[in-house]
Backbone:
């Protein structure tokens, strides 16, 4: 076993008790518990599902972001038990159940395409790029529910500037990890995997676009997109891609998962807009999780001061 001194501990070093217990359950199901002592660790290396998921690790010294809302926050329990993460099933309660053993370490994010210095970042490298902030954002799903979440991370622009986009870079494409063995429910989801998303370069560089590594003071739960995801608070939730492994700069507008599924319903821009209805429902109102009454949806989810100018002169109905 690898023994590390405390200061060398990294994101990956902890196996939580719940996962340990799940592993025992799995091995028992395979009739392997008796055999483990003799076979030792080598057996775990070959076993599937994988041995480790991450324990939530506490972050300290978080900077309070000026972009935070003062609205009442939803609870961690709400936000981690009502999810869209189709890789782990399409019911809101599925990801919390099915993503528990999702192996999120080791993990690298490849940044490539129209850049001077393409490179891969480990999660530990990402964590060192900038001071971590707590950003309390409103998050509005296209299905008309919304949440307020204290996310943790820093502006995506920090990472994007580092790799030096070439003059040809006009869009940024994002891709989620996909492994059908770890995500057996994905095949019933009705959408194609890996999940892909994209932004125009100026949108990706907007300081509000958050490269997110945690929430509620801790690392992300697997069902919320561990170990690293995007949070784009002025757009419908599906733009906020989870569990990212690739970021690619390119000249052309990238395809996006929900647009591919139904282009009339889900546009590339997907800015929150109460004045542009979804073909099957009005977007004028939303329900905050945990509340009974609906509230009015605000254009750009209330972030217009920071983002509206990026869309000057654009017909937001056409570019929905
Ligand atoms: N890879 C991936 N990312 C995804 C999704 C998904 O199914 N797969 N769902 C999206 C949708 S529709 C929403 S509303 C948000 C939900 O984020 P949350 O579960 O953390 O609230 O994640 C988005 N990111
Ligand atoms: Mo969503």
Residues:
């Amino acid at each position: 076993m690898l023994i590390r001194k405390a200061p060398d501990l990294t994101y990956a070093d902890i196996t939580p008790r719940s996962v340990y217990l799940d592993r025992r359950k799995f091995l028992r199901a395979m009739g392997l518990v008796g055999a483990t002592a003799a076979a030792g660790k080598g057996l775990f290396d070959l076993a599937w599902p994988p041995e480790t998921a991450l324990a939530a690790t506490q972050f300290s010294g978080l900077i309070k972001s000026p972009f935070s809302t003062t609205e009442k926050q939803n609870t961690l329990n709400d936000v981690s038990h009502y999810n869209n993460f189709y890789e782990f099933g399409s019911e809101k309660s599925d990801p919390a159940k099915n993503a528990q053993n999702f192996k999120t370490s080791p993990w690298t994010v490849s940044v490539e395409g129209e850049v001077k210095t393409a490179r891969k970042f480990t999660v530990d490298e990402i964590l060192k790029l900038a001071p971590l902030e707590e950003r309390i954002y409103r998050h509005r799903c296209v299905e008309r529910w919304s949440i307020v979440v204290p996310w943790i991370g820093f502006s995506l622009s920090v990472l994007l500037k580092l790799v030096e986009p070439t003059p040809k870079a006009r869009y940024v494409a994002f891709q989620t990890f996909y492994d059908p063995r770890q995500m057996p429910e994905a095949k019933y989801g009705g959408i194609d995997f890996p999940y892909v998303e994209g932004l125009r370069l100026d949108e990706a560089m907007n300081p509000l676009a958050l490269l997110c590594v945690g929430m509620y003071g801790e690392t992300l739960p697997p069902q919320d997109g561990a170990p690293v995801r995007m949070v784009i608070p002025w757009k419908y939730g599906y733009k906020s891609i989870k569990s990212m492994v690739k970021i690619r700069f390119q000249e052309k507008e990238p395809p996006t998962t929900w647009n591919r599924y139904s282009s009339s319903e889900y546009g590339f821009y997907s800015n929150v807009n109460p004045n542009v209805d979804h073909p099957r429902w009005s977007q004028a109102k939303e329900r905050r999780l945990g509340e009974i009454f609906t509230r009015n949806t605000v254009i750009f989810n209330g972030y217009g001061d920071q983002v509206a100018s990026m869309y000057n002169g654009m017909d937001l109905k056409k570019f929905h």
Q: What stands out?
A: The longest strand covers residues 145-155.
